[in-house]
Amino acid sequence: MKAHLSRRYRISASHRLHSPAFTGEENQSIYGKCDNPYGHGHNYIIQVTVSGPVDEVTGMVCDLASLDRCVQAKVIDRFDHTNLNVQECFFDKVPTTENLCIVIYQLLAEDFSPARPDCVKLERVRVEETANNFFEYSGKGRDGSSSNR
Amino acid sequence: MKAHLSRRYRISASHRLHSPAFTGEENQSIYGKCDNPYGHGHNYIIQVTVSGPVDEVTGMVCDLASLDRCVQAKVIDRFDHTNLNVQECFFDKVPTTENLCIVIYQLLAEDFSPARPDCVKLERVRVEETANNFFEYSGKGRDGSSSNR
Amino acid sequence: MKAHLSRRYRISASHRLHSPAFTGEENQSIYGKCDNPYGHGHNYIIQVTVSGPVDEVTGMVCDLASLDRCVQAKVIDRFDHTNLNVQECFFDKVPTTENLCIVIYQLLAEDFSPARPDCVKLERVRVEETANNFFEYSGKGRDGSSSNR
Amino acid sequence: MKAHLSRRYRISASHRLHSPAFTGEENQSIYGKCDNPYGHGHNYIIQVTVSGPVDEVTGMVCDLASLDRCVQAKVIDRFDHTNLNVQECFFDKVPTTENLCIVIYQLLAEDFSPARPDCVKLERVRVEETANNFFEYSGKGRDGSSSNR
Amino acid sequence: MKAHLSRRYRISASHRLHSPAFTGEENQSIYGKCDNPYGHGHNYIIQVTVSGPVDEVTGMVCDLASLDRCVQAKVIDRFDHTNLNVQECFFDKVPTTENLCIVIYQLLAEDFSPARPDCVKLERVRVEETANNFFEYSGKGRDGSSSNR
Amino acid sequence: MKAHLSRRYRISASHRLHSPAFTGEENQSIYGKCDNPYGHGHNYIIQVTVSGPVDEVTGMVCDLASLDRCVQAKVIDRFDHTNLNVQECFFDKVPTTENLCIVIYQLLAEDFSPARPDCVKLERVRVEETANNFFEYSGKGRDGSSSNR
What we know:
Largest sheet of chain A: 5 strands, mixed
Strand order of the largest sheet of chain A: 3-1-2-4-5
Helix content of chain A: 10-25%
Strand content of chain A: 25-35%
Oligomer: homohexamer
Low-confidence stretches of chain A: none
Mean pLDDT of chain A: 92
C-alpha cells in the first residue's frame, strides 16, 4: 500500500523582489510594492509531501523524527528569521516564492535521507506565502519530465 | 522549472437549488432544505490554480496583478453579492456548487490572458461552499479528455 | 470555580440590506452591493458563550447536549438555509449581522434552559459574517446596563 | 463534465503506537512518546474525495445525504470517541494514521454506494492527525496499480 | 502602556469522562460516548494570556523564551501524549476540559515566573477541545473574586 | 443595544528587534534570532474592534466602508510591504509587535472618524504576529486608566 504523508513547517523571513536585469521603473512595474528597497516579510508555511509503501510492521511511511531533522537542518535553520536576499542561493535569483519553493525542493531532493531512503520519494514542496497565495514544485521541467530521481 | 501557483478569492452569494424538471416533491427529496423558495447563501472561496515555467529573469509563473484583474472582471464582479439564480448562466442550469465551479473554469479558460498567455495554463478551479465541502473542476470530460486547451 | 464555555454553530443564509425608511439612492449609498434586490448570502458562524461554576461532581459548566438542543431549536432550525428577510423578526428591522446577533441573543436569553438553569448564565453571542468580519452582543444597553438577567 | 467533490468529517479517538514485533526499547525508539502505554489522542479530520460526471439535470456529482449516511455508518459510528487499539481492524496492525487512512479507504471502497454508484468513484481518503500532519491513500499499490475498482 | 500577550500551545491527549459518584447508567446519560471505557482523545490547543506594562527599553511585555520554558515544563511535558485519567491531578476529578483548563491555570499561577515576574500577570487560560468547543478560566470564584494573586 | 464590531486586516512587513541601549551580546540574549541584522518578516493580522449603539434605522454600528478607508489610510498604506524599522514611529522604539499594536491603536484613536464618530468607540487593537502569537492593546495605562477618549 503506497500512501502520501505531508507535513507543514513554518518560517518567518523577509525579502525584496528586484532584479538587476531591469531598470528601476521596470522593477516597479513588475514587482509593485514588493520592490520596496527596505524589504517586507512573510510567515511562510512549507508543506513537504513524501510517498512510499506503508511498512507492514511499523505501519509508517517514514520516520517523522528523521524527516523533521532533515527539514530542520536543510531548510529551517537556513531560512527561518532571515532576509532571503542575503542567502547565497538568491545571489543570482530573485527570491520570489516560486524560486524559494524550487530551492527548498532541491535542497531536500539532493540528499533526501530520512528513514528508509530506498523507498521514500519526495513528491512535492508547497510554500504558502499568505493565506491566499501558494506555490508548488514537484521537480518537473517544462516538458513534464522529472529532473530529480 | 514548471511550478503551480494557486490564489484564493472570496465571494458571498445566494442560491436556491430547484429544477423545473422535477415535481415539488422530487425537488424536496433531492435538494432538501437547499430547495427553500426564498434561497439561502454562502461565503464561497474560489481557488484558481495555474501552472507554467518560472520565468528565469522575473522568477515568477505569471503576473499576479494581471491574474487578479482577470478573475475580478470575469468572476468577482459578476457573482459577488448576487443571487446566482438570476444570472444568465444559470437560467438553464441549477446553481449547485459543481455547476458554479464549471462555469467559473469556463469563464476563465475561454480567454485566459494574464501575463505570458503563451505559457501559463489554467489547471484547476476549486470552489469551497463551506469549510467542509468543496468541488474541483479541471476542464476534463467523462473520459478524462481535456475540453479546454 | 467559575469557567466560560463557548460553542460554535454554523448556518447558511441569505439577506438583503435595505430599509424602507430610505430612498433607493440612500439605500445604495448606505448598503452598497449589499442592497442587491435579489439578495446575497453568507456562511454565518454563531458562537455562544455561557458561564457558570464548574460542577464539583460532573466537572462540567453545563450539559452540552442540552445546550445544543436549545440552540438547534431556537436558532438553527429557524435560520439555517433560509432568507433572513422573510423571517418575522426581520419584518421591521434590517437583517444586518448586528441585528441577527441581537436577535439570537434575545432568543436564547428569553428562556435559556440548558441543564442547571439556576446557575448557567448566557454571557455573549458572537456572529461571524465572513472570516474578516464579526459582531458581538452581550445584552447590554447603551449605558452599559444589562437588559437581560 | 467530470468534477471532484470532497467532504470533511471529524472524529475524536485515542491510540497507542506499539508493535509486539519490537522490544520495549525498539518501540520507544520507533514511536517515541506515541508509545505511552496509556495512550493519547487526536481530533482526526477525514476528507473523502469522490469524482464523477456532473448530472445534467440535478447539477450534482452525487447525493450528499447518501454520502454522509455511508461515511457515518462505516466510519464515524465505528471510530468516533473510541480507542483505535481495541478495534478489530487494528488487532494485527499498529493504528498509525497511515493505517487508519487505508482502513477507512477500504471500508468505503468495498461497497461504496451513495447515489449513482454506477458512475461515482472513490478517489482518495485523507486523514489529518494534527494541523501539521496528514496522510492520503488512493487505493494504489507500490507499483502504482489500483487495487480497488 | 499595558498590553496583553497570548500564546498558543498544542498537546495531544486521551481521556475518559466517568465519575465513581454515578452509576453506569448515570455516567452514560451525563457523558454519553465520552464515557467509552477505553477512552478517546483530542488535539487540545492551550492559549495562555498574560498582561503587563510594555517595557520601555525592550518593547516587550515578557520574555517569550521564558514563558515558553515555563509552559513546557509545567504543562506540555506533563500532559502531551498522555492519558489524562492517569495523571495524579485527575485521580479525584473527572478530566473534563473545564477541569483541565482550571488545572493548567493553577499550575501556571502557583509559581508564574517568566521574566519580570513582578509585573507580568496571568490573565486567562483557554483550552480548545475541538474547533467548535472551548473553555476559559481566569482564576475567578463564583462570586467573581480572584483566587489567585 | 450596544454591540461590538471587529474587522480583520492584513499587512506583510519586515523588522529587526535590536535596541541601541543594549550591547550586541545583550541584544542577542534578549531578542535571539529576531536580532538578525538583515531582518526577517511576518504576515500580520490587525483586528480592530469598535463598539457603539446599533442604529435603529440602518441596523449598523458604523459604516464599514468608512472604517475601511480610515484603517487603509492610517495603517495599511503606511505599514504594508514595508520594513518597520525605517518608519519614523520606530526611530526611537523597537518595532516589537507590542509596540506595533500600540502605535496602530494610537494612529486610529487620535482622529477616529468613521461614520457616527459621536458614538462609535475604538475598543481594542489586536495584532497577530503568527498563528500562535498575538498582542492586544486597549488604550489603558498601567493603572487601568484609559489614556484615550
